[in-house]
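Appendix B. Extra example for self-study. Work through it before the problem class; the solution is given directly after the inputs so you can check yourself.
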Amino acid sequence: MDQSKIWKGNWTFVLAAAGAAVGLGNIWKFPYLAGESGGGAFVIVYLLCILFLGLPIMIAEIYIGRYGRKSPINSVRKIISDYGLNKFWLILGWLGALAGLLILSYYSVIAGIAASYIFSSIPHTELNPAEYSVEYYSNFKNSPLLMIFWHSLFIGVTCYVVGKGVVDGIGKAINILMPILFFLVIVLCIYSSLTGEFIKTLSFLFNPDFSKITPGVVITAMGQAFFTLSIGMGSIMAYGAYMPQEQMIGKTVLIVIFLDTLVALLAGFTIFPIVFSNPELSAFVGKGLLFESLPVAFHSMPLGSIFHSVFFILVSIAALSSSVSLIEPFTAWIEEERIFSRLNGVIILGVIAWLIGLGTVFSDNIWAEYEIYGMNFFEVIAILTDQFMLPLGGLLICLLVGFCIPKIDLEREIDLSRNLSNIFNICLKFVAPVSVLLIFGYALS
Ligand code: TRP
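Solution. Structure tokens for the complete assembly:
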């Protein structure tokens, strides 16, 4: 790789990886899945998955990317040729490229809704804000044209940024905006915990009712752990290619995972206190949870409509810094292989994701009746990617790095003390793969 492409300083990688990780997964998806799955039981399994699967897999993904210094498909190819491995491992790159497109297809629809919310705070004069908010969201999702407009806009901006190159395109913006987002989420969380049902939220999220641990809850929690950390499909691997050689992988991963988990929990402590203090709102509404509940909190805040807009601007930006990482790996490969220019490549991929995304738009309105095993189009894509493709990708990454690369080579690259390095090895070889397989088996049971 051209040395000038490697990021300078340690901070750029941390911000880019945190930018990829922190997004709708934390602010939109974590609260709604926790709500649907009954809270504490889900949260416990989720946190365990972050620790035992997320941590080792993220380290292994960065290792592959930094070793290969190419797009994920070609970094895996380099490992195959350097270590004389079977071509089978290439499936890892292709599975990831496909998962990225599928995730982007619906990610962009939801991010589009978030962007449209910049302009739709609840009017001051409204006497029943919760009812208004529920109705507003329902009208919005019943309008396919409006949703397509915002979906197109979001995917267009994503492709534009990726077309310009991830570092120049977005690196600088992330530097300023991520800290503001953190700050605002903390302020919001304090406000809503003080004015809403904080204690109920605490017990909802952290007092697990173990009888609620079902195969469905466990696999949802595992899928969410992969999704929120952006692992299992090559996003983090693609960024690993730009990581400076001397940067410590272990420490960096700890920071990224800590920030990601913090934002998800803060989002939970922002949304649930409001939900529990408004009888019109429910924790079980599914993917509309964020859009129905937060505007109600802003309505009661001083300068609420300004906070409302700023918040949704920041969510849209957090979503953008994640969505670029979904399409970057595939685009980088197209550019490397000189199949098309970066810009043309990303346009083609964007159009494909846009088309698939129409299915998610329609699953709320004109296709609402169509279901496969009780799931609409959006749910099928979300479950296929989170609960199947990402964990499978993660499993392959563990096996590739754990069993096909000699331990001394790993130790040279991954700066862990001897003890930690042994724990990492055990997690990578046994704990993580066995857990994924057990959870797959449990879900099918
Ligand atoms: N983690 C991001 C979020 O929480 C979404 C995302 C970006 C992602 N890249 C990914 C999810 C790769 C899975 C795989 O919003």
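Self-check: The pocket of tryptophan is lined by residues 20-21, 23-26, 103, 227-228, 230, 233, 235, 322, 325-326, 390 (CB under 6 Å). If your reasoning did not lead you there, revisit section 3.
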